Amino acid sequence: MVVNGNLELTYILTLVNNSMKMMKLTLNKLRISVLLGAVVAITSSCTWEPSDDFRPATFPATAEVFIDGFSGGLEYLPFEGSKLDAFTVDTEEFYAGTASMRFDVPNVGDPDGAFAGAIFPDYGGRDLSGFDALTFWARASKAATINEIGFGNDFGENKYNTIINGLRVTTAWKKYTIPIPDPSKLTREDGVFWYSEGPEGGDGYSFWVDEVKYEKLGTVAQPRPAIQNGEDVEVQTFIGSNVSVAGLTQTFNLVDGTNQTVTTTAAFYTFTSSDPSVATVNELGVVNIIGTGSTVITAELAGVKAAGSLTIESLGAFTAAPLPNVDANNVISIFSDAYTDVAIDYYNGFFTDGFQTTLGGNNLLINGDRIINYTELNFVALKTLNTVNASEMTTYHVDILVQEPEIKPDDFIRILLLDAGPDGELGTGDETESSFTIPSSDLASNEWRSFDIPLSSFPGLNTSNLSLFFFISDGTNTSNPGSITNILVDNIYLYR
Amino acid sequence: MKRRTINNLLNIASKLFLWAFSLTIITGCVDETQTVVTLNTPVLSEEFDTDGAPDPALWSYELGDGTEQGIAGWGNNELQYYTDRPENVTVQNGFLVITAREESFEGSPYTSARLITKDKFEQAYGRFEARMRLPWGQGLWPAFWMLGADIDENPWPGAGEIDIMEYRGQEPNTVLGSVHGPGYSAGESITKSFILENDRFDTGFHVFGIEWAPDYVNFYVDDVLYNQITPADVPGEWVFDKPFYILVNLAVGGTFVGSPNAETEFPQTMLVDYVRVFK
Predict the structure, then answer these.
(1) Does any CB of chain A come closer than 8 Å to the CB of residue B33?
(2) Is B211 a catalytic residue?
(3) Which domains does chain B have, with CATH numbers?
(4) pLDDT tens across A105-148, in order?
(5) Active-site residue among B46, B78, B166, B211?
(6) What is the pLDDT of residues A200-226, one digit of tens each?
(7) Contacts for A109 with CB less than 8 Å, ≥ 6 apart
(8) Cβ of B200 and A257 within 8 Å?
(9) Element (H or E) spanning A31, and its range?
(10) Within 10 Å of residue A113's Cβ, how many Cβ atoms?
(11) CA of A113: how far to CAs of A20, A22, A106, A208, A242, in Å?
């Protein structure tokens, strides 16, 4: 029988599949066909239609992950780039029983890997819907903060990926609880445990985790889900763009009186758009803007309204910036869909000097066209990953659309370029910078303006190690106010 | 209304059964010599069935921050100002709702409510119980308790105090039952805690009660009898031989529970389904 053939094949594949995630898709497909085959086999004696006997497949409700050894079906799959032997079973140091999981986080510069991280999946699937938390005991060789630890990562969809970001551990054994945002969703979960941790202050260390299991504590209570980290966020955008709901967290009060927040995924939530003619939102929390106007995206998790919201202000149809027509051979592109860009370190440095107010960065994607939107602009810097040698170039190009209804005579946008100097490092004293001010008369409200500024207009600037590309409007600067605070930017490039 | 009556009957029936069950345990295992009485004749049945302010024939309010009574912070450095406003106390959908709010009010940072039956319902001995759902979070301190009705002439702790239920919001699975009297008050009170296994007091309703007879006070939660205090257990005079009145309140902060912290969510509500007294 084909069914038997598949079963055998699945079994063999399971044996050889221990660390080959590439094969997992194939395996899952086979498993589905096995299940269908089983249903057909049951029902074939009387009818080929699905009968009342049909039951969805159920998976074992195995609670144990690692008590003194691997629970049935558990595998160890390290992340790419991690120290592959960071995990060992330690029979000297444990909280209870005879063994614990030991994780050796490497020092910075360890040739074996930059960090420690792995998933512990059970690809047979487990029904975790009867539990309310993943719990374990842990201690470390020194007080430390584990970057990510949780469940739901299976090197696949990671549909219900749920973690504590920054779990503080000490040198003493302590029990930790990772609450499940909505257990009813976890009728088949493969990713039962995972972690990722890097060196602390450059130094590696070890930590131990023991008695890892799912529990029905009955004391995980007072759920307080949030989207956008509980903030009411407003985004201005255009028809054809899409925006993802972010900052998804669930917080429970635990029996010791503390609150535990986990970072989680859209799959636990139900999203709603207050005006679906402006934007729709799908089950992954992706908002598709289809009309002009305003809509508010809200969410629920297991029937509890999530704190926070995402308001979409759709300005309507988007007019793209003029298409660049300079030969690519004569261009070093910083940000343009018309060329291949150099690598960008950041679109917004979010300088914490107490003066920068600017929000936003490379955050609009409209009909496949990437646009930078800076809001609450006073000044902002974009930084390339490596310095740019523009010594052969003659001109700086940028397209700017000012999203203010009115531009006042004193308004301006100053383009400031900063060269890191011969050593390519910032803050070493050999930097040069220079600026060019675009007057209000050259700007227009809600219309793209293209600027081609000769590099000779930036007096005193070296151009062999360009690093920072500033936009300055002083829009929120009370001592030197301009009124421009919201701009779109596209096609930043240097050419000859 | 009809369904509610049936539910009440069922509640009473199940309580009778559970109480009988508890008594069996006491007789069988705890102390074979103790006097056991069955107190099942209703004397008071406050079901909170009428929406609005609590029944003035049964309940009075204690208002303010305690200053007027000469005990600022109500003797425990509590932080709330008690009011009788519906924002702090009301009857809704069959429940007494006491709400603690974070708001600046008459110089206090929080408001809440405290109800008493002084001069309206006072009784010596009997079974006193309430079905309640408690609030949660650091610094919340709800209580269902009793004071000696002669407290005006016989100041605390001489008048005696029976705490049927006290709870700290930061320990959501633990309640305490205590007695205070002359020579055994405040930190020296006779007390015992009860821990709910695999559950907590802020997510569902639980029954908190005492059965009080001349020579003992038994403390129970739901169907579990967890403590008995007798004259032999108190290092001073046994003052639980005269009428007491009932208090229901939700305090915020104070020495017993500590102050709320940044994670304490307000408003916090305490629901009381009923207060019943039997003899």
Answers:
(1) no
(2) no
(3) 1-30 (no CATH), 32-278 (2.60.120.200)
(4) 999 999 999 999 999 999 999 999 999 999 999 999 999 999 99
(5) B166
(6) 999 999 999 999 999 999 999 999 999
(7) none
(8) no
(9) helix A24-43
(10) 18
(11) 19, 22, 7, 19, 36
